[in-house]
Amino acid sequence: MIDVIIKTRTIIGKGELQNIPDFLADNGYKKYGFIVDQAFRSNEDVGRLITELREKGLHAVTYYYDLPFEPDYESLDNIKYLFKDRNTNWSLVDVIVAVGGGSVIDFAKGIATLINNHDAATTYKGFPKNLNPSIPIVAVPTTAGTASEVTFNAVFTDSKLGRKLGINTHNNFPVLAILDSNMTRNCPYAIALSSGLDALVHGFESFACKKSNYYTRLFAKQGIINLINNIEHALKDVENDQAREKMQFGAYLAGISLYNAGSGPAGALSYPLGVVCKVPHGIAGGFILPYLLEFNVKNGYYGYFEIADELAIQGENEREKCEKLVAYLFDLYDRLDVWALAKKYDIKTNNSALSEYIDLLQGAFDQNPVNFTPSDGKTILNKIF
Ligand SMILES: [Fe+2]
Predict the structure, then answer these.
(1) pLDDT at 174 over 80
(2) Residues 203, 293: one domain?
């Protein structure tokens, strides 16, 4: 049985951000909320969009997202009252336009849920049921990584528990995603790299995980190819709009595969690294990815040969193709200077909070195509740090 959900209308193209006013008008939205990464406060394209919407008389509430790290439930509870009346709980907006990376779009999803669902954000953590419908979201990603613009997941940290969970509901699917290469142009190298590696994790883990199917693997495979073939050009040549567009589309495809099929140990291990050691999600999973692939191939999983074939990596048999693909990935990491970033984090792998969190992850590890335990996770972390 194959069961795949894709719910988000998607427009891809340079300059397509300016489609938003027509989209809002065509759908009868009158009061829009804006959640914009503060780095885009003086961005020309965003400025033009806001001016045009104001000229059309569409009422705006704008929040410039400036949270120091990935969003937590408390921030959702504090900020939601910019978008709803504190006394009556009535919504002040009928659509939210989110412009930013994964954290910003996730944050918008959380706010869109809390506008129409009136308890504290932690009430809805995990996979809540019986929610009132969310306010619709238009998502404009400014990174090529999480694919939050097309997924139903939204990740939040519970700062009291020290755990990363989320508010994951199909209400979160944005109604429109706009992939506009103008919007990824000014992404700093470290963030673009972290985002790109996040997307590679999504692609590889969802390709190999136990719940993948023929359909999801098509998305994962094409996503990985787009990412691998374009990440260097996109990161090193800011003028290369086409490479950025192809990379972002790769991340988008990998995201579709991820939420339909599942993930694996690299994504799971990024959570303790994020909460305990403050390593951003994308780079944390990215560090683990090539070591995880090496582990899987050593333990007899050769499904990656299909990806090696697409990259024209030659080999006598499936196993050899996979080994060469792993070496290819390590080489790519060297060219992108990934390991220099790992040195920035002073991570003690014997940290007890880290170790205890990893011990809770067996359920997520079980999605891996070969047996993987918390102790295997710790061995990989020892190799990296
Ligand atoms: Fe991720």
Answers:
(1) yes
(2) yes
